[in-house]
Amino acid sequence: MIEMKKHEQAMFIAGIWKQKEEMINVYDPATDELIATVPKGTKADMEEALRSAKKGLKIASKMSTRQRMDILLNVVERILNEREEIAQIISSEGVKTISEARREARRAAETLRLCAEEARRIGGTTLNFDQMEGSEHRHGYTVRFPIGIVGAITPFNDPLNLVAHKIGPAIASGNAVILKPATETPLSALWLTRKFIEAGLPKHILNVVTGRGQDVIPPLVEHPEVRLISFTGGLRTGEKLAKDAGLKKISMELGANSPFLVFADADVKKAAKAAVSGAFAAGGQNCLSVQRMLVSEQVVEDFTKYCLEETAALQFGNKKNEQDDVGPLINEREANRVIGWVDAAVDAGATVLIGGKKYGNYVEPTIMQDVPRDSLLYQEEIFGPVAMIQSFTTYDEAMTLANEVNYGLQAGVFTTSLQTAHNTIRDLHVGGVMINDSSDFRIDAMPFGGTKGSGVGREGVYDAMLEMTEQRVVCFNDQDQ
């Protein structure tokens, strides 16, 4: 038995909290302070989790809908009762300010409440077999069954709610689930795991393996009895996982480079406020973050002025301060990358209108213009507090600019014209169009996913449960022989 020190955490495998000799440090990205250590999981640990999940699937398949609902609602109650504790964990290990962390805790509770509600609703449909000649004596229906073992891989930017979005629907629909949380932010996931155990979730249904992705993800992804991989992360990693997964279902949200369109008839001041909020929340480390502000040349001057005013008012530097608006980057490497992309764009002719400097792991909220369309900053997901303004003259030009990158998660559109709104809904190649709102607007019940490099499949509780179940057709032949 390995003796645990005060700051050490354990991973959860086969119904027990498991410790290891080799550990991984977890740091507060704002201060680089060591706040905890977690086990460095291995291939053998993941293989043990897979064996456990096979047992868990048998247990989960025998649980009633009522049992699953009660456990989920019990976890909801625990989150709400202990939301300050988990908010402090979210903020300490991650990139969110304390105010943002409290909102995430509330959202996670809502996500799991939705899981409980959808557990009672998800089901099959009746089928009219007698519509086909010769089948007059047949009747039947479809039934949904759990898909099996779900492999869930989560990112650092929403360390509680995105975990809830994967393990909640999996448990609600009767599956076993193995979670690999982000290496940088495992503490929120382990906290939520404890709440599920306290709520009465039988052992083996949920396994959580911490560690480096290269060590523990391959056996999870490649195992034939893992029937669905649910991954949120970067495009390049997603492409590799898809190749390695083999013949199984894949649900992947792979990021974005979201356009935010402002037409000449828009409420420009309101649009600027929404754009700045959408660009810099969570330090820009949000897959729905506003990155490319595409603005009619008729209003671009006013829009830019309002954006700069809103940005200048943002506070940052102490994410535990309730008045702070913008948190740090997750680590120094990412902060250096973001500034490197900014500097490269400036070298290629772009102009920094505000921001553009780095302080430790903090990057100033930054707005740029004249960013070259072939630059990394224009084409790829920045995943940091940087946005750019570009003007357009015609509707067709706006659509060309909006659609020309290899991402299509969501778009924000500001206009007072119903016709323009409907045209953008038709012409934008994205998974969601938010009219008179920021691209980063989302509720946890809605279908969520994108086109092109933004991923495959849809999340959102009900849609995730559809992905995590399989239909079976039942037909009765009641003709007398």
TrEMBL record:
The keyword Oxidoreductase is assigned to this record: yes
Record-annotated Aldehyde dehydrogenase domain positions: 19-474
Molecular function via GO: glyceraldehyde-3-phosphate dehydrogenase (NADP+) (non-phosphorylating) activity
InterPro entries, alphabetized: Ald_DH/histidinol_DH, Ald_DH_C, Ald_DH_N, Aldehyde_DH_dom, ALDH-related_metabolic_enz
EC number assigned by the record: 1.2.1.9
Keyword Oxidoreductase: yes
Keyword set, alphabetical order: Oxidoreductase
Top-rank lineage group of the source organism: Bacteria
Similarity-based family: Belongs to the aldehyde dehydrogenase family.
Name of protein: Glyceraldehyde-3-phosphate dehydrogenase (NADP+)
Organism the protein comes from: Geomicrobium sediminis
